[in-house]
Amino acid sequence: MTLAPIALSCGEPAGIGLELVQKAWSLLKDEMAFFLIGDPSHLAGDVPTIVISEASQAPAAMAQGLPVLAQTFLGDAVPGQPDPKNAEGVMRAIAVGTQLAMSGAASALCTAPIHKKALKDGCNFAFPGHTEYLAHLADVQRVVMMLASAQLRVVPATIHIPLRDVPTALTPAVLRETIAITAAGLTTQFGIASPRIAVAGLNPHAGEGGAMGREDMEIIAPTLAEMRTQGYDVVGPLPADTMFHAQARATYDAAVCMYHDQALIPIKTLDFDRGVNVTVGLPFIRTSPDHGTAFDIAGKGVANPSSMVEALRMAHRMALAKTQPHP
């Protein structure tokens, strides 16, 4: 089966995203087909570009240059200096990519990093972040953030909230939904027929029988027990300090963690440059490099394309897996 090309939204034009897209084309042009959604005038001239009018033209164009589904932006792209006049164009590029991925014209959506303040200043961006905007566009109530690499996949049950708020936010319903969405995504998007999920405890030593906190025994353990009766292969709550060495990682397909840093520290330690952000629970595949706009190095030609390359490769692998039947 021939896959549709991957759509790649441009992100913040003043950041490193466009530089990384051009580097990714140079590295991947013989490996897969993708196209940029953005303003061709924002691109540096050291990589050839081919303006296309529809996604289906991207595969044929890849050999000659970076295919660009052209959008007109109102501002210039000055490295390190985000222009709120570009906010509408950035949001439109994401929306176009979402529509193409949902329609099947694109096999996946890969997103370059955005700058939320520029979006808020330029067009009153009303979402906490990129992921929430995508969920809104797809009319999905709940998605989960997965960070994935060749060595580890992690999902935080709670994300961008203060640590003191985690115990209150960590309800059985939140945990149950996070695990269910993760399991479904591992099957439909990663091709894992019977996913194994390890679940971290909240407290040191997973609470040590209540001596270091009761959330593990009163919230996490009963929820996991209930889910096991429903057929989920889940283990835990496990002490987080012993979950991430190589022998432990071999026993599960993804780790669900209780808060942001509990999940992200292990994967960024193991594979800082190649971690990929995957949004699980959308009706299409979405990946993104696991870094921001990096205004301090924008325009200097020194940005490392590893995470962008891995985000495109992972989107491609996930799209291939999605075409396979699952028992």
UniProtKB/TrEMBL annotation:
Cofactor notes: Binds 1 divalent metal cation per subunit. Can use ions such as Zn(2+), Mg(2+) or Co(2+).
Binding, substrate: H130, T131, K268, N277, R286
Root EC class: oxidoreductase
Cross-referenced Gene3D superfamilies: Isopropylmalate Dehydrogenase (3.40.718.10)
Keywords for this protein: Cobalt, Cytoplasm, Magnesium, Metal-binding, NAD, NADP, Oxidoreductase, Pyridoxine biosynthesis, Zinc
Reaction equation(s) it catalyzes: 4-(phosphooxy)-L-threonine + NAD(+) = 3-amino-2-oxopropyl phosphate + CO2 + NADH
Pathway membership, UniProt: Cofactor biosynthesis; pyridoxine 5'-phosphate biosynthesis; pyridoxine 5'-phosphate from D-erythrose 4-phosphate: step 4/5
Positions of a divalent metal cation binding: H160, H205, H260
Protein family (similarity comment): Belongs to the PdxA family.
HAMAP family for this protein: PdxA
Function: Catalyzes the NAD(P)-dependent oxidation of 4-(phosphooxy)-L-threonine (HTP) into 2-amino-3-oxo-4-(phosphooxy)butyric acid which spontaneously decarboxylates to form 3-amino-2-oxopropyl phosphate (AHAP).
NCBIfam families according to UniProt: pdxA, PRK05312.1
PANTHER family, per the entry: 4-HYDROXYTHREONINE-4-PHOSPHATE DEHYDROGENASE, D-THREONATE 4-PHOSPHATE DEHYDROGENASE
Note: The active site is located at the dimer interface.
Record-given protein name: 4-hydroxythreonine-4-phosphate dehydrogenase
Organism ancestry: Bacteria, Pseudomonadati, Pseudomonadota, Alphaproteobacteria, Rhodobacterales
Gene (name only): pdxA
